[in-house]
C-alpha cells in the first residue's frame, strides 16, 4: 500500500496537451508587435547606422540598408545579395522600373511594417508589384486589401485587373471583372480600356464574353419568372410579344382577387431583378 501511494501521477492525456498547444498557438497568433518595437526598427532603417547594402533606384538615387534584415525579410533579396559583389564592404543591388519613393517605402516596410496612408495611395500599384516580385506576402496582402476597399475606380479598374492577373491575386481579379460587368459602357470608354484593347485584345474579348454570359444568365432568370407568371395567372407570354400589352388586356377583365395576385407577382419579378446584383445594371424590358 505504501508503494502504491508513492507512485507519481501519470502525465495528462495527449489530446489535452494538443488542446493546450492549440490554445497557445492561437494566443500567439493574435498578439501584435508593440509600437515601441516597430519604432526601433523604423529608426534603424532611417538612421542607416551600420548599413552594408546600397539599393540603387531610378534617377541614380540609392537607399541604404542592412544585408541581414533584407535577407530575412525577403528570400528573393537574400539570393540576390548572395550573388552581389562587395566593394569596400558594401554590396550594391538594383531595383529599377518603379519610382524611388516606392522602393524607399518597400525597404522601410521590410524593417518595421510601417507605411503612411497618403504614400500608400500614391504607390500602391508599385508596392503590389514589388511585394510579388520579391516575395513579401504581408505587404502583398495589405496592397490587395487597400485596392479592394479604397482604390478601385472605373478609371483604374482595367490597370488593377491586369496587375491582379500578373501578381496572382484571384479575388482582386474577380472584383475587377465584376465591376466591368456591372458598368461596361462607362469603363470601355476609359483610357485604360483603350490601352488594354491595343496591347491585350484577348483580355478585351474575355471581358466582353463575361458581360454576354452575365446578360444570358439574367435573361434566363427573367424568362423563368415569366413562365411562372404564365402558369399562375394564365397569361400567354412569349419572347416576341411585350408583356405590357398582355398586362393591359388582362387587367381589363380581372377581378380584385386576380389583381392582387398580379401585383404580388410583379413585386416578385422586381425583387428577383434586384437580386441579380451587378447584372441588373443593364435594363431588361419587362413591362
TrEMBL record:
Protein name as it appears in the record: BTB/POZ AND TAZ DOMAIN-CONTAINING PROTEIN 3
Native species: Salix koriyanagi
Source organism superkingdom: Eukaryota
PANTHER family xref list: BTB/POZ AND TAZ DOMAIN-CONTAINING PROTEIN 3-RELATED (PTHR46287), BTB_POZ AND TAZ DOMAIN-CONTAINING PROTEIN 3 (PTHR46287:SF1)
SUPFAM superfamilies on file: POZ domain (SSF54695)
Pfam families: BTB (PF00651)
All residue ranges annotated as the BTB domain in the record: 51-119
Keyword tags: Metal-binding, Ubl conjugation pathway
Record InterPro entries: BT1/2/3/4/5, BTB/POZ_dom, SKP1/BTB/POZ_sf
Single GO MF descriptor: metal ion binding
Pathway note: Protein modification; protein ubiquitination
Listed transmembrane segments: none
A GO BP entry: response to hydrogen peroxide
Key word Ribonucleoprotein present: no
